[in-house]
Amino acid sequence: MTPHPRLPLQAVLFDMDGTLVDTERLWWEAVERVAGRALAVADEPHVLGRPVEYTAHWLAEATGTSAAGLADALHHEFADRVRTGIVPRPGALALLDALAREDIPTALVTASPRAVADTVLEALGASRFAVSVTADDTDHTKPAPDPYLAACRALGVDPARCVAVEDTQTGVSSAEAAGCTVLAVPSLAPIEAAPGRTVLDSLEGVTPRRLRALLPYRLRVMTWNLWYGGTKVREHRAKQLKIITETEVDVVGLQETYGSAAEELAGALGWHHHRAGENLGVISRHPITARFGDPDVGFYGAAGVRIEVGDHEVDIWTAHLDYTPYGPYESAFDGLGADELIAHEEVRLAQMRDTLRRIDDACDASVPVVLVGDFNSPSHLDRPDVEWPVTKAAEEAGLRDSYREAHPDPVRDPGHTWSPVHDEHEDGSGRPEPQDRIDFVLHRGLRVLDSRTYVSGRPRPWPDVEDNDWPSDHAAVITTFSLGS
To answer: Where does the record place the Endonuclease/exonuclease/phosphatase domain (predicted)?
Structure first.
C-alpha cells in the first residue's frame, strides 16, 4: 500500500504588505515622512510588520509627540501612497489565480488597519479572498497568533493544514505561533529558514503543488492489544484487517499477537513488520529501517522499530507490561490506599524503566519517538488521588500522553480502554468491572492533531463475544500526528 501523503492543503493565508503588494516600501516612506528623518536598519524591528499603533508609540517615545496624533498621520501618509503607488509583488497574482482555479480558499491576514486593507483589496480584487483579517479585527495583532487563528476559524480550517505566506519575521512568528506552515518571501529584512518554514526569494513560479509539498506528513499510530491474537472471535483476522483499513492508520503497535499476527496482518496489507517474541509486533505502511530490543522478548516487555516517512524518521515502540497485581482491582475491590497501590506497581515500574532505557539506548536525538502499549496501569493524569508511577516515569523521560494532550479533561473524556467486553467482573460476583484507561500512545518530538479511542460495532459482553465485530477485550487508541514539513 502507498504511504499516506502529507496533510491536505485546506487554505493559503497571505500577509498583505510586502507579500502580495509592494507596500513595505510605501510604509517605510510614510514612517520616514512622519518621523522627519531617514530610517536605518536598527529601526526595522519597530517598523516592518508592525501595526500602525505600535510604530506610533515607538515614534512618540522618541519624539515626545502624541501617539494618537502620530497614528493619524501615519494612516494618512500610508493610505495616500497606497492609492497611488500600489504594485503587486512578482508572482502574487499568478499564485492567487492558480489557487482559485483549484478551489483552494485564501485569506488576507494583515497588521494594517481595515481602511488600508480595503484599499488594497479593491486594487487586487476583493473576490480573490474568502476572508480578510486586519489589525481592527482581533484584540492582539502580529506577532501574536490571533490574526491567523481568526482567519482559520472564519474559513473553518485547521492551521496545521494551512500555509501562511509572509515577508517579515513578525508575521512569520504570528503564523508559526498559530500552527501554520510558513512560506517566507522576505521583502526588506532577511528571514532564516527553520523547521516548518521555507524561504524563497519571490512568489514567482510558486504553485499550489509547491505549497502542498511544504505541509507536514500525517502519521496515524494505533496501539492495539489483540487479545490472544484475536482468537476469541470468529474470523478475527479478516475483522482486524477491516479495522486497520477503515481507520486509515499508518503504524500499529501490537500486543498479544499470539505468535504470527504481525506477519499475517502485514502480509495481507502489503506492509512492513517486526515480530518480537510471541507477543509483540509492529506493522507499518512505511518502510522499517531498523529494529530494536530483544527479538525473543517474553510475554511482557518492549520492542521497537525505526520507520522512514518521506525524508523523516520516527522510532515506534510497543510495550506490554505485567497485569498483576492490577491496581484498579485493588482500589475498587480491596480498598487499598494510594501508598499501597503505588508500592504494588513496582514490577510494572521496573518494566517501564527498562523500556525507557532501551528507547534511550536506541534513540537519535533528532528522531521523534512514539511509545504505545498496554501498560495495565492507570495514568497519573486521570486519577489525581494516586500518582500512578508507570505513566509518571514515562512523563519524566519526556514522553507526552497524546490522548490527554487532545483531551485534557479526564472527567469529560475518560478515554477508557478496559474493557469494551467486560461490564461485570469475571468472578461471577456481579460486581461492576472497573473501567480504566490502560492503553496509551505516548510521544516525544511530534505534534498531536487528534487522538481517540476506537471500538468497532457494539461488542457483546463476555462470554458471548465470538460473533463480535470487535475482536479484542481492549479498546484501541489512535493518534494522528504531524511530522516535519
So the answer is: 222-474
What is the tens place of the pLDDT at every residue in 330-361?
999 999 999 999 999 999 999 999 999 999 99
129: cell is: 479572498
User: Could you tell me the pTM of the whole model?
Assistant: 0.82
- Rounded to 10 deg, the angle between the 389-396 and 346-362 helix axes is 20
Read off the pLDDT band of 22 (50, 70, 90): confident
Mean pLDDT of 155-179: 95
By the 10 Å C-beta count (0-12 exposed, 13-18 middle, 19+ buried), 405 is classed as middle
What pLDDT is recorded for position 461?
96
Using the predicted structure, report yes or no on whether residue 1 has a pLDDT greater than 60. Answer: no
Non-local CB neighbours of 179 within 8 Å, separated by 6+ positions = 145, 159, 160, 447
> Start-end ranges of CATH 3.60.10.10 in the chain?
217-483
Q: Give the count of beta carbons closer than 10 Å to the beta carbon of residue 154.
A: 16
Nearest to 31 by CA among 42, 19, 43, 16: 43
In the chain, CATH 3.40.50.1000 covers 11-212
| Range list of H helices, 86-113 | 92-101
DSSP string covering 355-382:
HHHHHHHH--TTS-EEEEEE-SS--TTT
CATH 3.60.10.10 matches 217-483: yes
> How distant is the alpha carbon of residue 91 from its chain centre?
31
As a whole number, mean pLDDT of residues 123-141 equals 93
Neighbours of 196 (CB within 10 A): 19
Domain 11-212 homologous superfamily, CATH:
HAD superfamily/HAD-like (3.40.50.1000)
